[in-house]
């Protein structure tokens, strides 16, 4: 009798333990926002600032958080990491940010609205020690601007063109080219000869030839969205401007859209934004060919999302990663949208993110550091991405199993049932769009089918080398198959294989 009680008590303790582990994973859910910044540093997408005008009043956020993009995730179940307690930057929105600095891994934040007084024009965040600082910058300190985009070149120079002058009440939009050397911390100015007309909320991105392309936007004084039948190129090497006239399916004049460079460096993709009349989802995605400056509507697959404005977009791996913005309902659509842009013949809206995988070395060159007594290399816990399954609970399950054998059979069954449910839920999130319609998703084979080799910089491959090593063990991890993950593993294998081929051909092209 007392033995039975003891077992019951220990079981109860273990259940408490499990519950506690699950409770520790209560996800951080940020509020919807627009006019934030999204900065990618070391596989972390940092989100800072922004405001939400959806409910009538500007509900400005001081929170600061990031999304880990080193492992795969599903946009229906994002796990944000909250850094708000270390944030020193006052409430702000419509600021500009880049990754730069002497070690090329600091977040530089410039300007923004000044509804509340900000004590500095520039803030720097160092992800290494997670600290913020206010830098001392030499040269002529410029005025505060907002509603602009920051671009950094390959020499660590940040370009802050145009935007809205926050200080002089007689001036609204401007078109000056402000330059910040993020390595030596010096202000400068760029050429105004041939500069585009004044504007805010324009689109821009750095091209492979060191030009920055600028387009569209809003002209405050005229109260109108600017045309996209002309685009402007700022040559960062020679400090001069030129203009190109575009043709084809020219998008209507718009502002507050996002702009990224395609993976092959030959096209610019724009998404969302605002036009005089609201944009339709079919009118929200365009692509500009950089060879002949012809616009086209790219072929797309998957559920087209709501049109967003004043969001941000970063290219991460093979995806255009869109974050937050105004115009969607946070209860039905994820804060993150993923457009797989690896196949230029068909872009794919998807919920699944897989990190960029490099080529796998043909022969395993480096043996595992801690070889276990048994020959069979068992992957360490930390090498299993948490998105695949919860390693902690697996371990707890294993301990329970060995300790309580038969008594645990029913309990273990319950746990397996739970994780099966979880996988089923994942499946639902993947195949049902937000309006409850069934959509046909391609298999992951199709996701990564590419018709022409993509030129991915060798540096990117090297940088991501570790992920392949982290992911390979999963494919051989038999334990995971117990949790109904066969399909996922199959997918991962396909991706690893495909990426292996892809990267190999890239390297051949480069040599
Ligand atoms: C969401 O992700 C977390 C970890 O990232 C995981 O523990 C949880 O089971 C996932 N939930 C669903 C419904 O997939
Ligand atoms: C900083 O890193 C980026 C890649 O994230 C690279 O393109 C750029 O050239 C680097 N800048 C410097 C100054 O090394
Ligand atoms: C904020 O804007 C007001 C005008 O709206 C200006 O007087 C003030 O100097 C600005 N503050 C900063 C810190 O730029
Ligand atoms: C920009 O400067 C370079 C070097 O001086 C020159 O070759 C090029 O023609 C200039 N472009 C324009 C549009 O002036
Ligand atoms: C370890 O691996 C080697 C080579 O694969 C094999 O010959 C040997 O029998 C293995 N030892 C054990 C204990 O499995």
Short description:
The chain has helices spanning 2-23, 391-404, 409-431, 444-447, 458-463, 465-476, 478-481, 486-510; strands at residues 37-41, 44-48, 64-68, 73-74, 80-82, 96-100, 106-110, 122-126, 131-133, 145-146, 150-152, 157-165, 173-181, 186-189, 203-206, 211-215, 218-219, 224-225, 230-235, 240-245, 247-248, 258-261, 267-271, 285-289, 294-296, 300-301, 312-316, 319-323, 336-340, 347-350, 352-353.
Observed structural traits:
single chain, 511 residues, alpha+beta, Neuraminidase, 2 domains, 5-stranded antiparallel beta sheet, 5-stranded mixed beta sheet, 31 strands, 26% strand, globular, disordered C terminus, binds 2-acetamido-2-deoxy-beta-D-glucopyranose
Can you give a write-up of this model?
Keywords: Kelch repeat, Membrane, Repeat, Signal, Transmembrane, Transmembrane helix. Helix 1 runs antiparallel to helix 2 and helix 6 runs antiparallel to helix 8. The C terminus is likely disordered. The relative contact order is 0.09. It contains 8 helices and 31 strands. Strand 12 and strand 13 form a beta hairpin. It folds into 2 domains: 323 residues, 6 Propeller (Neuraminidase), CATH 2.120.10; 123 residues, no CATH class. The chain is globular. The longest helix has 25 residues. Strands 10, 11, 12, 13 and 14 form a 5-stranded antiparallel β-sheet that branches. The protein is α+β, with helices and mostly antiparallel strands. The termini are far apart. Bound molecules: 2-acetamido-2-deoxy-beta-D-glucopyranose (5 copies). One 2-acetamido-2-deoxy-beta-D-glucopyranose (NAG) binds next to strand 20. The site of one 2-acetamido-2-deoxy-beta-D-glucopyranose (NAG) has 7 residues, from loops.
